Protein: dTDP-4-amino-4,6-dideoxygalactose transaminase
Organism: Eubacterium ruminantium
Amino acid sequence: MEIGSFIELQFDKGKEYYRDNNIIRLNTGRAAIWHSLRILGCDCIWIPYYQCDTVRDFLLKKGVTIKYYHIDKMFNPLDINQKSGEAVLLVNYFGVMSFDRINELALMFHNVIIDNSQSFFSKPNESCLNVYSCRKFIGVPDGAYVIGSDVNRFIEEYDKCFSSDTSLFLLQRIEYGCEGKAYKNRELNEKRLDSEDCMIMSDLTRVILDGTDYEYIIKKRIENFNYARKLFDGINCIDASMYYDETTIPMVYPFVYEDDELMLKLQKAKHFQGHWWNYICDEMNDKAFEYWLSRFMIPITIDQRYSFKDIEYIYSIVTNKEDFI
């Protein structure tokens, strides 16, 4: 025990959102998916083409056999011909899919891993393994959960992650904004995570998670998403609420608009979002739904940092109605 010397950052305690016994805390979502495969005893997995390439690359590095499936405009999985010993990864895209919707899909397969990386607050499905990413919802340098039966197996094989050496960007964002040195240091943290194996969540992240006001986050995200629906639904090329219900706490508002210049326009207005998974446009036929999503989907920010006025500002840029606000 250390006593005295300088005072460190302090946070509230006892608020961590997921705390029961069927949880393992790891460093990244991709590692959490791989750990889930180990728990299931599978060395082959079906994953969607519309998925972050860091997941694919990590699993391939681990010697996992990957089979790919398409999704349609209703986000239904297609082309899955699952065999014994194979797992299926189902993604809760944008965090806008209800528990009932994901459960309906999960009943179609066996050895199911639900990727809730974009849906931190979605209730775990007790018959599946459930993966959550902390960084998409809370300001932490690493962090993921796996929730489900028997997930604590293999935990003794993993080293502890240390994140404080590359977490300066979280403090710099407060004083400098997200551009410049803060962004450069965030990239250092991303490179660290890209180079890491499956590891136990860092103590720094655990402390932050244990002191976070989750009820405030839930309230703000729901309010902001509903306000974004009011503004953008009429010009959105997809139905962002097709599986939305009162239990859903989204990551973003998925806005699809067929204008290749819009993203650059938003970035010039300092709305720092990007098209997700641009690599898909280089690897897939331009008639595929996944190509279309990767090319035109803009994730509109609706998280707890922002107000209705901020969402109105984004809408004014999209619609060329600068006098809207």
Q: What stands out?
A: The chain has eleven helices and nine strands.
